[in-house]
Amino acid sequence: MDKKAKKRIALLRQRLQKLKQQLTGAKQQMDDPEEATRLEQDIAAAEAEIEKYKDG
Questions:
Q1: How many CB atoms lie within 10 A of CB 56?
Q2: Distance (Å, rounded) from C-alpha 51 to C-alpha 6?
Q3: pTM as predicted
Q4: pLDDT at 35
Q5: Is 6 exposed, middle or buried (0-12, 13-18, 19+ CB in 10 A)?
Q6: CA torsion, ordered 23, 25, 30, 31, to nearest 10 deg
Q7: Greatest C-alpha distance within the chain
Q8: N-to-C CA span, the chain
Q9: Containing structural domain, residue 45
Q10: pLDDT given for residue 30 in this prediction
Q11: What is the pLDDT along the chain (56 residues), one digit of tens a residue?
């Protein structure tokens, strides 16, 4: 894995942490039910991208 991939994974992990916090808040508030769904999709996409970098 090159430096660029490692940096991207680090950024994605930071983004995942932030998204998970937002998801927790969205589930508690439930002002906009679609927000929780969107956040879950963003989390899944970020996790998939991390796996792509790890495999590749």
A1: 7
A2: 12
A3: 0.87
A4: 94
A5: exposed
A6: -110
A7: 42
A8: 8
A9: 3-55
A10: 83
A11: 789 999 999 999 999 999 999 999 999 988 888 999 999 999 999 999 999 998 87
Locate 56 and state its tokens.
């590749």
Please return the burial class of 38, using the count of CB atoms within 10 Å of its CB with bins 0-12, 13-18 and 19+. Answer: middle
DSSP annotation string for 17-50: HHHHHHHHHHHHH-SSHHHHHHHHHHHHHHHHHH
Residues in the chain: 56
- What is the number of domains present in the chain? 1
Task: For Cα atoms 19, 50, 23, give the angle at the middle one, nearest 5 degrees.
Answer: 15
Provide φ and ψ at 55, rounded to 5°.
-75, -35
Say if residues 20 and 43 touch (Cβ distance below 8 Å): yes
